[in-house]
Amino acid sequence: MQGFKSFADKIELEFGKGITAIVGPNGSGKSNVSDAIRWVMGEQSAKSLRGSKMEDVIFSGTQNRKPLGFAEVSIILDNSDRKLKIDFDTVTVTRRVHRSGEGEYFINKSPCRLKDIYELFMDTGIGREGYSVVGQGKIDEILSSKSEDRRHIFEEAAGISKYKYRKNEAEKKLAQTEENLLRIKDIVSELA
Ligand code: ATP
């Protein structure tokens, strides 16, 4: 990552197999690491990244350092087991945001849409809607949330989110087509 929150300079963090613990004094940037992971996987809520707008993730400067113009995070995943449905051994997902608010996404360095990242991670448990990053207060939220919201977590784990998503997309297309049909019928009856 580079220019993301407190990480002004480009840094690389390696997460091996098993557990990685991040320790450090209060305010040293531990949570910013997990924010970066959620952000690169498509998090859209600035609030859940502890900001008020998305540009708040860009390094805002310190007493002796000027603010930066953009933030960039890449996550490099080992995909030799093809858990992600893309035919590469390594998958690199990159997200960049500029002060203007303009954002960019890349999969293996090719520009893509947020939708592509969302679909890449769907039903894997990782990603924006995944359950692999459990933030502070998340457990409370899960326990106290409505049962429908809770069901979403089980649906992601069971791997059925993508079917629900596809159904939703298909329904949207269907509604659009019905609308078009109606318009055509109107034209036909006008001509008749
Ligand atoms: P705690 O142990 O208190 O939870 P932490 O180690 O998790 O702390 P973080 O919350 O990750 O710390 O980091 C907070 C620090 O990040 C603060 O010092 C804050 O000023 C800095 N920070 C957050 N956003 C930015 C930004 N856009 N630019 C520069 N610094 C930032």
Automatic annotation (TrEMBL):
Coiled-coil stretches noted in the UniProt entry, renumbered to this chain: 160-192
Annotated residues for binding of ATP: 25-32
Localisation per UniProt entry: Cytoplasm
Domain of life: Bacteria
Description of how the protein assembles with itself and partners: Homodimer.
Family of this protein: Belongs to the SMC family.
Note on domains (UniProt): Contains large globular domains required for ATP hydrolysis at each terminus and a third globular domain forming a flexible hinge near the middle of the molecule. These domains are separated by coiled-coil structures.
Function: Required for chromosome condensation and partitioning.
Protein name: Chromosome partition protein Smc
Native source organism of the sequence: Qingrenia yutianensis
Organism lineage string: Bacteria, Bacillati, Bacillota, Clostridia, Eubacteriales
Protein encoded by which gene: smc
Residues of the full protein shown: 1 to 192 of 1175
